[in-house]
């Protein structure tokens, strides 16, 4: 598959240096893609390569990743509110007057779906790649969450370094055994950088490893998802360790009813959306856009091209 050309744009948004990666012709429909935890915008290269129609794809490196500046006051970690504000700043820059298509993977999928409920008029169509929220945490776990966070911030977190680019690729393949060697080497060049100490360092702020002090309040998340008006496609992967959707196992799109679901179940999460379909990529893991970009691209493009 031929690699589509991209370019990296550096700009200042919210008094913060941000890197945006662009593919495709200016004037084509805009698709903003948000990467996941410990990843970078360039990670969408294989998915973009597999897309058959003209799109102007824009993938920011999220705060503290890749070419985007680290948060100077990140001693306590990174917060969803900042990711949401950063996404809004990107949209203000690339499409201030018209809604865009929004595609997010994992962390990026959760940010995207929250944003689509907070600013529904700014999202035309929404796709979440293996990003369905996280397991709910009740109030009884709140004190423990704060304790864990207080303990964690007493010492600075660190990330591993590597003696070579091949070693970074080995790490990527250890994380994802389905990743081919050529893709691992390609990703390693974007996922890491050679520094003055002669070691390859991950392009990420170690503060991302810190836990959140607050619990995950599913009631609040579902209330936000209730506000999403964009037709939504959630795509899971049959071999994903992140899956919350036991009981859905085929690779066909499943229409979802908003009635008759038990609160807190995966079905209830789906039912929170007004217009949603769910599909599964068979044989793929959490990094489904690396494992089977062709299948993911076919579903994504079918959704984005569907008549409103």
Walk me through the structure.
This protein is α/β, with parallel strands linked by helices and 308 residues long. The protein contains 10 helices and 12 strands. It has helices at residues 45-50, 80-94, 107-118, 142-152, 165-175, 181-191, 218-225, 266-271, 288-291, 293-305, and strands at residues 6-13, 16-23, 30-34, 56-60, 100-105, 123-129, 161-162, 192-194, 200-202, 232-237, 254-255, 276-281. The protein has a 9-stranded mixed β-sheet with strand order 1-2-4-3-5-6-10-12-11, sandwiched between helices. α2 packs across α3 (107-118) and α5 (165-175) crosses α6 (181-191). It starts with 5 loop residues before the first strand and ends with a helix.
In short:
The chain has 308 residues and is of the alpha/beta class. It is built from 10 helices and 12 strands. Strand 3 (30-34), helix 1 (45-50) and strand 4 (56-60) form a beta-alpha-beta unit.
Q: Secondary structure elements and their pairing?
A:
Elements: E1 6-13, E2 16-23, E3 30-34, H1 45-50, E4 56-60, H2 80-94, E5 100-105, H3 107-118, E6 123-129, H4 142-152, E7 161-162, H5 165-175, H6 181-191, E8 192-194, E9 200-202, H7 218-225, E10 232-237, E11 254-255, H8 266-271, E12 276-281, H9 288-291, H10 293-305
Parallel strand pairs: 3-4, 3-5, 5-6, 6-10, 10-12
Antiparallel strand pairs: 1-2, 2-4, 7-9, 8-9, 11-12
Helix pairs in contact: 2-3, 5-6
